[in-house]
Design brief:
The complex is a heterodimer of chains A (107) and B (160).
Chain A (H helix, E strand, L loop, with lengths): L2 H8 L3 H9 L5 E2 H5 L6 H13 L3 E6 L2 E6 L1 H34 L2
Chain B lengths: L10 E7 L3 H9 L18 E6 L6 E6 L4 E11 L3 E6 L13 E9 L5 E8 L8 H8 L1 H18 L1
Classes of the chains: A alpha+beta (107), B alpha+beta (160).
Chain lengths: 107, 160
């Protein structure tokens, strides 16, 4: 299975999608993720493992706790693309604004 | 609970322009269609001929096609001429309109001496893409999708 297929597969499960969504606002422990969910902690841990294998989620040790968060690599792709997009768009904007400014100066 | 920010969730750009804030603001907003890469960065079926920002908070931000059709890109969140503009960018990674994508573009126009302006742009909340399955796939398939788009974009720029 490719990387993309594994990510697709991992998010095909509604519980895993919910878990993934819960990590959007920051890192959470297993207990915090499981809170208010109709799923046991061991089940949440199992889902997290699948998400981690699909490189959608990363975990870090915080003292004795383990915190899970969205793997920024997926977002990084998009960020890089937007970074290049705005470089080009703003360069074109600069040119247009300076043309307009010189047009007004010569009025 | 620890609110750990993802460091990669915004893009920041600064450009210095030899134009007053008034002119820079007007070109950015009223004349967006003159500089936006409409050939490649648009949503509709029709060839896009203009990019329009309605001049008020709550206004629409959309493209106009040559057949008169319009396609929303997002909304105006803050309209403070000639110094600050915030747009809701509701375009998904596969370049379709999706109001549930609430990323924001903030643009500040700062006077920099006589007839010059520093334009600071921040495209933020990019993690709004992270939790969405369709967009995730588009991002992961970026070798095909994004670089193809970029190649077309580069070609369009070179033709200018």
């Amino acid at each position: 299975m490719t990387y993309a297929e594994r990510a697709f597969d991992a998010l095909g499960d509604p519980t895993r999608r919910l878990i993934f969504t819960r990590l959007r606002n920051g890192a959470r422990s297993v207990g915090e993720i499981a809170e208010g969910m109709d799923v046991t902690r061991p089940a949440v841990s199992q889902h997290l493992k699948v998400l981690k294998d699909a490189r959608l989620v990363v975990d870090t040790a915080e003292g004795t706790r383990r915190l899970y968060s969205v793997d920024p690599r997926g977002i990084e792709e998009l960020r890089r693309w937007l970074d290049r997009f705005w470089d080009k768009a703003l360069a074109a904007f600069k040119e247009a604004a300076e043309k307009e400014a010189s047009k007004e100066r010569n009025k | 609970m620890i609110e750990q920010a993802i460091e990669t969730k915004s893009v920041r750009k600064t450009v210095s322009v030899q134009a007053s804030p008034d002119v820079a603001w007007r070109v950015f907003t009223e004349k967006m269609g003159t500089w936006w890469p409409l050939a490649t960065h648009k949503i509709g079926e029709a060839r896009a001929v203009d990019a329009v920002i309605e001049p008020r908070a709550g206004g629409r931000w959309y493209e106009r096609g040559e057949d008169g059709s319009t396609c929303d890109w997002g909304r105006v969140l803050a309209w403070e001429p000639p110094s600050r503009l915030v747009l809701a960018w509701e375009i998904s990674a596969d370049w379709k309109h999706d109001p549930s994508i609430n990323t924001e573009v903030e643009v500040r126009f700062i006077a920099e001496g006589e007839g010059a302006t520093r334009v600071e742009l921040e495209h933020r909340n990019l993690d709004a893409y992270g939790a969405r399955r369709d967009q995730m796939i588009a991002i992961f398939e970026s070798d095909g999708g994004w670089s193809g788009l970029l190649a077309a974009f580069r070609a369009a720029c070179l033709q200018k």
